Amino acid sequence: MRCWLIVNSFVNSGKFLEIYELIREQAVKRKMEMEIKRTEDLMCDVLSDFRDFDLPPFAIFWDKDILLARRLEEAGVRLFNPASAIEACDNKALTYLYLKKANIPFPKTFFSPKAFPGTGINSLSFLDAVEKSLDYPIVIKEDYGSFGFQVHLAKDRKEAEKIISDIGCRPFLLQEFIEESSGRDVRVNVVGEKVVCSMLRYNPSDFRSNITNGGSKKSYEVDEAQEALSVAASKCLGLDFCGVDVLFSKNGPLICEVNSNPHFKSSLECTGVNMAESVLDHIVSFQR
User: 50: burial class by Cβ within 10 Å (0-12, 13-18, 19+)?
Assistant: First the structure.
């Protein structure tokens, strides 16, 4: 079986290279002929439809370049994950729209009004509507972001205004703060429609639990509700594999985010389960 692993041209840090190698190793074990392609390696005129490339029947798309993903699908390449699923995860606002349609619970959420460069946000009256529904502190989260870097906690109106001013015209969410899950959540890795491993992430010094932000981790066995919720979220977004971040709440588990290309090295270190094995097995099952 011949395939590509498509990765971002400009993300070259060691922790990403480790993920690529873990995937490649599993492909080799299954006698796959895998070639790693950077997104810039696939530059071509839009009208050419990749006719100068020897396209493989399928590819693991470990990036968020939606336009490239769509073009490859139109050229007949089966992507794991599909372009539509990657797009739905990359834009957190879109994620919540998909979850809402499937009746999957998540925190109360408001979308920011659209702002344009040059005009910016010159009125904050929309916060009045938010404050009628949500009490401070309020989570303010940019629609696009990774590792918790674009997630903020506003303790009052003044802090909210400052955060929004710093974000500028980039789209963002205003979200209910789930106090009982402050500094902790569960990362659930799903492949196909099955949970392959999970870990508890926690940080007593920050409301965000992300490992990159200084959080810690330990192996965790999901309960039936967390498992069902994670699989349902993956399914409704059309994903082959993903990492689902699940919050604790007094009313049951809630979805925080869904990641189409999860950094599973942390869960491997924590649980001993190599998610790449399940991902490659899932892909092989499609080729039979």
Answer: middle
The closest alpha carbon to 192, from 47, 63, 81, 61, belongs to: 81
Residue numbers of the domain that contains 154: 109-177
| Residue 212's CATH number | 3.30.470.20
Distance CA 151, CA 104 (A): 22
pTM for the model: 0.93
3-state SS assignment for residue 3 = strand
- Kindly state whether residues 71 and 147 are assigned to the same domain: no
Angstrom distance (rounded) from CA 136 to CA 131:
8
Please report the DSSP string for 35-72 in residue order: EEEEGGGG---GGGTTTTS---SEEEEES--HHHHHHH
Over residues 170-203, the pLDDT tens digits come to 999 999 999 999 989 999 999 999 999 999 999 9
**Which residues, in sequence order, are bridge partners of residue 170?**
none
